UniProtKB/TrEMBL annotation:
Name of the protein: Flavoprotein involved in K+ transport
Family matches, as InterPro entries: Auxin_biosynth/cation_transpt, CHP04046_FMN-dependent, FAD/NAD-bd_sf
Annotated keywords: Oxidoreductase
SUPFAM superfamilies: FAD/NAD(P)-binding domain
Keyword Oxidoreductase on entry: yes
Higher taxonomy: Bacteria, Bacillati, Actinomycetota, Actinomycetes, Propionibacteriales
Pfam families in alphabetical order: Pyr_redox_3 (PF13738)
Length: 431
């Protein structure tokens, strides 16, 4: 895979910032349309998968959903779940397969509007572009609550992006805060290694791995859930910021049942509300959190049953989930003296402070419609729920990249500007 040398003062028709699956998919669409561009990656291709995932990490969606443009999954285990190193290899192979014009190790530091489009300052050069695509992904700045500052120094603290394996943590009991996908899977990883885990729950929903003879993802895909546009929902903002359902692809895929973990010795708690004195303090909402997660999972099964019935599909019957454990008490405190480490599985926030273009709302979220912002020529791709449930996943980013490719071509036609590929701005002519 050839590396592009980015020269100071160079001009491109399009600059793509970010070399993950969203940036690579966009590059493929631009190449297919004959559009001169460069992809800038601050580290290496697939860096988020390589450096921010633990050793046993695997996809939670089946391999057949890895369908990047021009590069569908071609392995032998379509219904399996790629592990971390296989995901990295898949993306590296993708970048090589069409010689993406990639410049690795170049970090964008400032983006502003410019008479000819946009001026981008990086730690290597300053370049300009007619159009810009931001493909930096949602996992940029680890979020850790300020209450973490109250933990004693002898307690090791890690964000989920820093966790690798149980052996990384000191001997003793471990608190995992958060029951999104990362929190539940890290808690399981520790639990399977024989560690005493204290899992702090939240409002994240869960989903069954399999139901009525198929992976639930396969049912939802056939039902059209992954291509339903966000504008079809009444509560767009609520949908866009929903927490993902927890489930796992580990060992061929299975449910994550926190109640089962509790039966096996894991300690569960409600939401963490304070760290004070010598204790962690919790809300008394453990039962509510568990019941909510189960209700969402059973609701998805209801929709699958209705789909099967409406289509007359032959599918095996299956009994419904019965809770295997209920909290007899709602624990409100945990002594800190029992804890050796805390893993904060509390998510990420975006870091768009380098983008000096007025496209953000009061929360700092980029305002857009299907990735197209109100500033002509500036686009985002790879955002969760950018247009559909699949937008932030391997299975849906291709459609978003194709849409933006069409928008980029349309704008080029409207402006009448065409730059000869591969030359710095000073050497280019306008056709």
């Amino acid at each position: 895979m050839p590396q592009v040398r980015v020269r100071d003062g160079a001009h491109y028709a399009v600059v793509v910032v970010g070399g993950g699956q969203a940036g690579l998919a966009t590059s493929w669409q631009l190449t297919a349309r004959g559009i001169d561009h460069v992809v800038l990656e601050a580290d290496r291709v697939a860096n988020e998968w390589r450096d921010r995932r633990w050793d046993s990490f695997c996809l939670v969606t089946p391999n057949w959903q890895c369908d990047l443009p021009g590069f569908p999954y071609a392995g032998a285990d379509r219904d399996g779940f790629m592990v971390r190193d296989e995901i990295v290899a898949y993306l590296e192979d993708y970048a090589r397969c069409f010689d993406v014009p990639l410049a690795e190790g170049i970090r964008a530091t400032n983006l502003e509007e410019y008479p000819q489009g946009f001026k981008l300052t990086t730690d290597a050069a300053t370049i300009t572009a007619d159009q810009m695509v931001i493909a930096t992904g949602p996992y940029q700045r680890p979020k850790i609550p300020r209450m973490a500052e109250r933990l004693p120094g002898e307690v090791l603290q890690l964000h989920s992006s820093q966790y690798r394996n149980p052996g990384q943590l000191p001997a003793g009991e471990v608190v995992v805060v958060g029951t999104g996908q990362s929190g539940c899977q890290i808690a399981e990883d520790l639990h399977l290694a024989g560690r005493q885990v204290h899992l702090v729950t939240g409002s994240a929903p869960r989903v069954a791995r399999f139901y009525r003879g198929r992976d639930v993802v396969a049912w939802l895909d056939e039902m059209g859930y992954y291509v339903k546009g966000i504008e079809e929902f009444d509560d767009v903002d609520a949908v866009r910021f929903r927490v993902n359902h927890y489930v796992t692809g580990r060992d061929g895929g299975r449910d994550i049942d926190l109640r089962r973990f509790a039966l096996e010795g894991m300690n569960l708690y409600g939401r963490l509300v304070a760290i004070g004195g010598s204790d962690l303090h919790f809300a008394t909402d453990l039962r509510t959190n568990l019941d909510h997660a189960d209700a969402v999972s059973e609701g998805i099964k209801d929709s699958i049953d209705a789909f099967i019935g409406a289509r007359g599909i032959q599918a095996p019957g299956e009994s419904r989930y019965q809770p295997v454990w209920q909290p007899s008490v709602e624990p409100e405190k945990l002594p800190l003296q029992e804890i050796s480490a805390v893993v904060w599985s509390t998510g990420f926030s975006r870091d768009d402070s380098w983008i000096r273009v007025p496209v953000f709302d009061g929360r700092g979220y980029p305002t857009h419609r299907r990735g197209v912002t109100s500033v002509p020529g500036l686009y985002f791709v790879g955002l969760p729920w950018q247009h559909t449930w699949g937008s932030g996943r391997f299975g849906g980013v291709a459609a978003d990249a194709a849409y933006l490719g069409d928008q980029i071509v349309q704008r080029r036609m409207q402006t009448g500007v065409r730059w000869i590929a591969g030359l710095p701005r000073s050497e280019k002519t306008v056709a």
